[in-house]
Amino acid sequence: MGKKGKRDKKGKGAEKTLAKMEKKVSRRAKKEEEDLEALIAEFQSLDAKKTQVIESSCPPPSPRLNCSFCAHPERDELILFGGEYFNGQKTYLYNELYIYNIRKNSWAKLDIPNPPPRRCAHQAAVVPTAGGQLWIFGGEFASPNGEQFYHYKDLWVLHLATKTWEQIKAPGGPSGRSGHRMVACKRQLIIFGGFHESARDFIYYNDVYAFNLDSFTWSKLAPAGMGPAPRSGCQMTPTPEGNIIIYGGYSKQRIKKDVDKGTLHTDMFLLKAEGTGKEEDRWSWSRLSPSGVKPSPRSGFAVAAAPNNRCLLFGGVQDEEEEESIEGDFFNDIYFYDIGKNRWFPAQLKGPKSERRKRRRGRQAEAGAAGGEELQLPPPQGPLEIVKEVVAEDGTIMTIKQMIPGAAGDKDRSGSEEEEEDEEEEEEGGALGQPVEPCPRSSAMVAVKHGVLYVYGGMFEVGDRQVTLSDLHSIDLHRMDQWKVLLEMDPKTQEWLEESESDEEEDDDVEGAEGGEEEDEESSEEDSEEEEGEQQHPAVQPGEAQAQYLARTEQYWLGLARSHMGPEAKDKKVLKVAHAMAKTFYEDPIQTS
User: Fold this and answer.
1) pTM of the model
2) By three-state DSSP, how is residue 333 classified?
3) Where is the composition biased (Basic residues) (predicted)?
4) CA dist 18 to 9, 22, 23, 33, Å?
5) What are phi and psi of 197, to 5 degrees?
6) Cα distances (angstroms) measured from residue 590 to each of 107, 392, 544
């Protein structure tokens, strides 16, 4: 038997194994999904009481993860939908719709009748049709205790011009899943991968589906060639030619009872459209071998399309599990992938114009003092890695890795370009502020509009505690000069409850999963205020335990202080300012050595 025959036989065997596993998972998950369906139906009955569109200015969204964050195709707006929040005891699910106005740096909440049910880990894609459409597929709903899951397989469209939700019911679509990826490509929505999880089993997918935006029909693609292994959370990018690029992702396998082994994928594939790209037998897989510097292995990274025929990767985490500790290396770096050149390279910040001007003037002075001799410039600085180790009370070791991008060299820049930059700087009113950047994180939400990258939220872990962020940063991908802080994280929104305290709240399932809606309209105003306070995740109350919590998350305060004071400030002064910032929100100062 030739290689082709062996490969085909191997592929068919894998398909049979996958089908058996999917049937097994589906059978075991059916019971718990039936339990959650009743809960979801109750929430939908509350949503059905909304009869009119209400758009109102509001504070920024409360911290949340695994929501969708997309750029409006026609307006200077970003659209945030859904997500989840976990406070150590309870999981909150959302189906709220927020609009961020880029020019005004303001948020608005948009209440529209008959929205999709609460969900997280779904996928969203925007298309410019009829004034703009936001398409949403799949995702999951979790019970408040986080032990049961319902995976959606529904498809929704938000008509942005008319502000109406519509559920599209078409047969033949993907099975219920979350962690999949979806992109709009040549009047189609292409969906790849994802996973389905029940209380005891899980399955990862590597199938590909296409939804035709003209005929509103599903088709399962059967590409030729060997494709990626099953995975979730990968990078999925369309090319101008109508092809699809897949990179990385995460999956896990059960190696023995109650023991799972995770895999960080670092391979790269091209799903090529042969001909029209609309027929099942006109697609093919091929493996890509890019040049350049690839991102280090990681999961939880965010991806977006970038200018100049590129896509980008931001942040993520690399977990290393050992017998007595779990170490997580969190990142805040940016990598670009040049689609035309098939090449990866790390992004480097050029720094504020005022700093570049100082460097140029310093080199010119040195060149003059050398009597016209050729000046040998030092190579551009590479990224600086800062590693911080935090030990929690229970002895858990948490390693937080921060990548500080180096300054790009000015060696090849012409004098005219430098003069233009100086003129722009003068018009803007002088020297720019000290550089700032997002703290290392995974699961951030990103969007690109007019060549500017916007990074919202994400999370990092300290021991067994999860810190969910709600800050907003931006950076011009053309200039790559500096990050801008559009919204700082409010520490008052942070809440973490120990597992030992959860027994008292086991009966709060509906309220916890509801995530921001009132349970009973006839309840008293006092009860409503108490519910609202809990649903907005109030700050941890002052006390010794909270001071210790802050000590474990002091990197946030130190990073914030450093961003305000600049890199030249002495460490002792930065620490003093960090203490003062913390005391603004808490009675007890940070307990540091």
Assistant:
1) 0.73
2) strand
3) 1-10
4) 14, 6, 9, 21
5) -135, 135
6) 32, 14, 10
